[in-house]
Amino acid sequence: MKIGNIDLGNRPILLAPMEDVTDPSFRLICKEQGADMVYTEFVSSDALVRNISSTTRKLHTNDAERPVAIQIYGREIDPMVRAAEIAAEAGPDVLDINFGCPVKKVAGKGAGAGMLRDIPKLLGITRAVVNAVKIPVTVKTRLGWDCENKIITTLAEELQDCGIQALTIHGRTRSQMYTGSADWTLIGEVKNNPRIHIPIIGNGDITTPEQVAEHFDRYGVDGIMVGRGSIGAPWIFREMKYYLEHGEHIPEIPATEKMELLRRQIHESIDRIDEYRGILHIRRHLAASPLFKGIPDFRAVRIAMLQARTFAELDEILVKIEKDYLNI
């Protein structure tokens, strides 16, 4: 699969852009574990144009992550064009436009998936951004605003006509948020449309190696994007890539190695921000990590882990987990 001149190989697996998740440390670890391409957190065009420091920091990438995409969102053409120019100057391989975020503070203001209620403006923004930068522009979106307006088959052709070089489709409408199951049927229809010649990347509910292989085979997509299934489990890319290559599961990754990756995220999160906020940031990964799921009588330890406020406190709990529960 190619995005412009960027060759991602056969059946690539991509790390989805996720707010408060895909920070530089997590992206790099996922890349090392096998992700073929990674994406930044969402970058607000309005905040970027206003030079808000917390937003401009999101533009920082490093060569070890490549290929890497910066994703921007907004609801007006001029700020999106200026944000695209600023983002492109930061040196990503790809610029992605977010027309899929369903959360109220984004979609409710007309950005992200909110743009699915104003297709002429959505297409106007896309054309303007494509014309404003020299790097490949891609789009990530959903099936439509709600179940009565699943417009993706038509929208995909219109976006292609705007000049985008790949399209990622999440198999839900905005009204579904993250409830129910992702419907890949329309994603497959888009991919199998003979008028579509850009890569189609499928997204939604991919959490196991078997699902990756099945969805590649069943729907014919060019790539698969993994989001929530990677939180607290960056090694999922290694497992998925091995399964695609060998048709069987990778030998069990030791708990010691998984814990080392989580500890690395903790240290790098603290180094990047500060101790208190770095630990707050990493809690989402610890809470979601399958490394701790299914452990009997673990509830009290989990609560303590997620309430830790200092590294010393958190490290003491992790040492106890290693000794008492993981037999490390």
Describe what this molecule looks like in 3D:
Helix 4 (77-89) packs parallel to helix 6 (119-132), helix 9 packs across helix 10 (236-246) and helix 13 packs antiparallel against helix 14 (311-324). This protein has helices at residues 24-32, 45-49, 53-56, 77-89, 104-107, 119-132, 152-162, 185-191, 209-219, 236-246, 255-272, 275-288, 299-307, 311-324, and strands at 2-3, 6-7, 13-15, 38-44, 68-73, 94-99, 137-142, 167-170, 200-203, 223-226. The chain is globular, with a radius of gyration of 20 Å. Helix 4 (77-89) links the parallel strand 5 (68-73) and strand 6 (94-99). It is 44% helix and 13% strand. The strands form 2 sheets. Strands 3-10-9-8-7-6-5-4 form an 8-stranded parallel β-sheet. It has a two-stranded antiparallel ribbon with strand order 1-2. The mean pLDDT is 96. The chain is built from 14 helices and 10 strands. By secondary structure, the chain is α/β, with parallel strands linked by helices.
